[in-house]
Amino acid sequence: MQNCRIKNLEVGGGAPVRLMAVINLSPESFFNKSYTPPEKVFNKACELVENGADIIDIGARSTAPNSAPISVTEEIKRLKSTLNEFLGSGILISVDTMYPEVLEECLRYEIHCINDINGLANKAYAKVAGDSGLPAVLMATLKKPGDPVGFDSVYSALETVMKRAENAGIKDFILDPAVGKWSDSRTSENDWELCRRFSEFKRLKKPLLAAVSRKTFIGELLVKEPQDRLSGTLALTYSLLTSGASIVRAHDVSDTKDLIRVFEKLNR
C-alpha cells in the first residue's frame, strides 16, 4: 500500500491507525451535538488533540440528506472566522468543502489537507486542489457526492477518482468509500455491503478512510437516534480497522482513540 503524508503525519503504509476528529461549524448538522460555535472552535480543537486526534477536519456545511442548504458565501464566512486562529498552532487541519471558491479562500490560511466528498468531479475544484500541492481525502463520486450505488459501482467510482487525482497532479491522497445515506437511491443494505466487503478496497493500494460515525444505517439497525449510536459506531469501526482502514473520521474522539489503542495492541 502507498502511504499518504499530511505534513509530518504518515497515513497508511504500515503507520499506526490515525484519527481524524470532526468539528462542525454547521448548526444544520444531522448530529446537532457535534456543532461547535466559531468562537469555541480553537479550544475545542486543542481538547480533541489532547484526547488523541491526529488531525482536525473542519466543515461548515451539512451534507446530510434533506439538510438546510447554505450559500457559498455563508460557508466561506464560517470557515474564515475560525481558520486564522490556528496559525502557528501546530495542529493539523483538514478542510471539508466541495466548492472551489471556498477552497481558494481556505488556502489563504494554514491548512494541511483537503477533504472533497465530491471526489474531484468538479474540474475547477480539481485544478485548485492540484495547484495547492496539498494531500486530499477523496470520496467515491461519479457526478454528485456518494452517488454510486452498490459495491461494484463504488469500487469503479474510486478508480475514476484515482484517475482524476492523477490528472490533477495529486499524488498523496486517501480514499473514502462513501459509506452512508448520500442519496435517496442508497439503502441501508448498500451500506452494510460496503462495510462487509471493505477489505476489497485494499486492492486499490491507497489508504482507506473509515467514516461511519453515527450514520443512518447504524441507527436503522439499532432503532436509535444519532445521539444514541456510539456503541454501534465503535463496533463497526473496529470491524473496518480489521478490514484495512488506515484512518478513522469520528465525532467521539476519546472513545475512538481507546478503540484504536486496543486494536493496535492486539494487531501490531
Describe the structure.
Helix content is 38%, strand content 15%. By secondary structure, the protein is of the alpha/beta class. It has a single domain, classed as TIM Barrel, CATH 3.20.20. The strands form two sheets. It has an eight-stranded parallel β-sheet with strand order 8-7-6-5-4-3-10-9, with helices on one face. The longest helix is centred in the middle third of the chain and has 18 residues, at 151-168. The relative contact order is 0.15.
Strand order of the main beta sheet, please? 8-7-6-5-4-3-10-9
Number of strands: 10
For this structure, what is the CATH homologous superfamily?
Answer: Dihydropteroate synthase-like
- What share of residues are in beta strands? 5-15%
Rg, Å, rounded: 17 Å
Stretches with pLDDT under 50, minimum 5 residues: none
- Tally of distinct domains: 1
Q: Mean pLDDT, as a whole number?
A: 94
**Percent range of helical residues:** 25-40%
Question: What does the main sheet amount to?
Answer: 8 strands, parallel
**Looking at CATH, which topology would you report?**
TIM Barrel
DSSP summary: helix tally: 9
